[in-house]
Every structure is written in structure tokens, then in C-alpha cells.
Q: What sequence folds into this?
């Protein structure tokens, strides 16, 4: 298949799939999701993504009918059905379908599982990005990957209209993350990231980069930092499954980073090696 849609056991091309209008994901964004890419029909870091998905479900009190093992097996089976050997796999679970009412529906209403798989082009890791800053007006459960993404959508559109690639959300002075990625920096020889609290999504790429840095003997600092500190950093990084670990050249039109290129390159190469080893693919060139 060239792409794949799945909804509660039904499989078809995405453009042919339909969902019931009472799905609570539509009324309330009452659900959670996760996503990862697959290369050679192998889902990248599936264990980590399933851990986060399980935490997200618990965070909003959705009880899946499938076990974690069943869900994992389903995703692995679905990814084999799609022709392309580089795809994005997205899965979401909502609290089920029921007439609109804010409180949970009756116990017997079961969650809805939706999956889609589309061909995906991994960005080259020497891609550079331009960012804009924006006040983070999201709510306080950003560690739960819910479907409620309107502030992220508005920020993504503002970014696009500014001819840029991502946003730096900040609460007051404090940098949180991007609208669909984490923001990190290299400063004073250390890889720095805001702490994984309820203000950011605990990105899997972020976690892997922290592990990679440690393996390379680079110090890792998990502590809040300000927009000003980011502007002065030796390098600014945007990390996510899709954007990988990309170098930022400008924030709000001002040049940033560019002073720890070698350290960044070592990190990117080591991360790339790990990615290739896990998927058996050659998405990253290893020099
Ligand atoms: N975005 N922060 C936010 C708000 C995100 O939405 C994402 C991922 C990340 C990075 O997480 P990871 O490294 O695990 O991809 C950080 C997904 C893919 C999306 O919504 O499309």
C-alpha cells in the first residue's frame, strides 16, 4: 500500500477512511498520540515511544482495551503493509465515541485507536534552521502528548509566515520548547536542555542525544535557561524525530550559535550511527 489508515480494526488507504462524528477527539481533543519514523519497516525507538504513549494515556485516564504488547505488535504488523521503506507512523487513542458531554462517557464506551502511516523524507542532518520566539501560552501538561495542539498550530503558522522553520516557546524569560520539537543548546562545553517537567514534552530524540553526549564524554546539563542565554549559546539545536538534531542559525532574524560546530558534528554523527544501527537503514551518512 502507498499509505495506510487504521481505525478500530479497519484498514484502508487514508483517503478512503472515515471516523464517526461522535469521536471525542473531534469535540474535545480528548485523546493522546505518539509518532515515530520507520526505516526498512522497522519502527525507530518503539520501546521509548510506547513508554511515552502509556504515560500519556495514564495522564488523561484513558484505559486501552489492548495490552501494550498487542499495540506494539499491531504497529509492527501495519508498518510492513506500506511499500515505502521510510515512513512516519502516527497513532492516537481517544476516549471513545459518545454524544457530546464534558465528563467521561459510561464505562462500556471503549477508546478509539487510529493509526496512519505515510511516506516520509528524513531531513539531512546538516540542515540548518531559522526560528522565531513566541510566548508559550499552552496549558501546564505539556509532558502529556495530547491532541490539544491549537497554540502549537498557531505558532507553526506564524513561523511559516515569517519564512522560518520552528518557534522557541518561552514562559516569561524561560525557554520551554518548540511547537513540534525540543530546543537544546551547547554552552560552556555542555549539552544543555530544559528539565523534563510539565512545561515540555520529554522528547525521545532529546533523551537519545543526552545519552549520546554522555557516551562521548560531553557534560549534559538539565536546567532551565533563558531566551537571552539561548541567543548567546555556542550552538542552538532543534531536536525531534522528524527534524532530527538540526543546527539553528538565526532566532528572530539575529545570527546565533556557530561556535561549537565540531562538538555538534560529533554529536550528530554518533546519533546518526545509533539511528542506522537500530533501523538497519542508511538515513544518516556515517563518515
Ligand atoms: N512532535 N516537543 C513537542 C511539542 C513535540 O510535538 C515533539 C514531537 C517533540 C519532540 O519529540 P520526539 O523527539 O520524541 O520526536 C518535542 C511530534 C512528532 C508531532 O507532533 O508531530
A:
Amino acid at each position: 500500500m502507498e499509505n495506510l489508515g487504521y481505525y478500530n480494526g479497519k484498514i484502508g488507504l487514508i483517503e478512503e477512511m472515515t471516523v464517526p462524528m461522535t469521536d471525542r477527539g473531534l469535540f474535545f481533543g480528548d485523546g493522546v498520540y505518539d509518532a515515530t519514523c520507520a526505516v526498512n519497516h522497522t519502527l525507530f525507538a518503539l520501546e521509548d515511544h510506547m513508554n511515552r504513549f502509556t504515560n500519556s494515556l495514564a495522564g488523561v485516564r484513558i484505559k486501552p482495551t489492548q495490552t501494550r504488547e498487542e499495540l506494539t505488535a499491531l504497529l509492527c504488523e501495519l508498518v510492513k503493509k506500506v511499500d515505502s521503506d521510510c515512513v512516519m507512523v502516527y497513532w492516537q487513542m481517544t476516549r471513545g465515541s459518545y454524544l457530546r458531554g464534558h465528563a467521561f462517557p459510561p464505562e462500556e464506551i471503549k477508546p478509539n485507536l487510529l493509526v496512519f502511516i505515510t511516506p516520509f523524507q528524513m531531513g539531512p542532518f546538516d540542515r540548518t534552521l531559522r526560528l522565531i520566539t513566541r510566548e508559550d501560552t499552552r496549558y501546564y501538561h505539556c509532558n502529556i502528548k495530547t491532541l490539544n495542539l491549537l497554540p502549537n498550530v498557531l505558532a507553526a503558522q506564524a513561523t511559516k509566515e515569517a519564512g522560518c522553520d520552528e518557534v522557541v516557546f518561552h514562559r516569561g524569560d524561560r525557554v520551554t520548547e518548540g511547537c513540534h520539537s525540543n530546543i537544546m543548546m551547547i554552552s560552556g562545553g555542555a549539552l544543555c536542555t530544559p528539565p523534563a517537567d510539565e512545561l515540555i514534552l520529554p522528547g525521545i530524540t532529546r533523551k537519545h542525544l543526552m545519552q549520546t553526549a554522555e557516551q562521548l564524554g560531553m557534560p549534559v546539563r538539565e536546567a532551565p535557561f533563558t531566551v537571552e542565554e539561548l541567543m548567546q549559546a555556542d550552538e542552538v539545536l532543534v531536536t525531534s524525530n522528524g527534524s532530527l538534531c538540526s543546527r539553528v542559525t538565526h532566532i528572530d532574524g539575529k545570527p546565533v550559535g556557530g561556535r561549537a560546530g565540531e562538538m555538534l558534528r560529533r554529536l550528530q554523527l554518533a546519533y546518526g550511527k545509533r539511528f542506522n544501527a537500530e533501523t538497519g537503514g542508511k538515513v544518516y551518512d556515517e563518515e
Notes: The chain is about 30% helix and 30% strand. The first strand starts at residue 4 and ends at 7.
